[in-house]
Design goal:
The chain has five helices and no strands. The chain is mainly alpha-helical and about 110 residues long. It has a domain of about 60 residues. Helix 3 packs across helix 4. It is elongated, with a radius of gyration of 25 Å.
Length: about 110
Amino acid sequence: MEDLLPFTWEEVQRYFPPERVAALRQQLVEEHRRGATVAGLAAKYRMSRTTVHNTPRRYKEARELRDFLDQPKAPKNPHRKVTPEHVELVRQMWLEEKSRLKGPGGPSWPN
């Protein structure tokens, strides 16, 4: 068996630079395409067999190193993101509603 990683896959993802993680993913996918066993890859890369099954599936279209980088966590649907304009609109609506409220010491807008 080839060299085993001295770190768990979780440690690799957490502490290694993104380019190195992508290179390891690319290497894993290439070995899987060449017919390496799932159990052998799981032992070599110190990851679960489920992760070994899912990784080639997830990156089946990937060819270049940049294709193996982690995807950003930003929303895929940015129009659903709350913008400062939305916050101001809600604040104005709240102030209008506050003026209609009766009684002293009504609620205050959080800063």
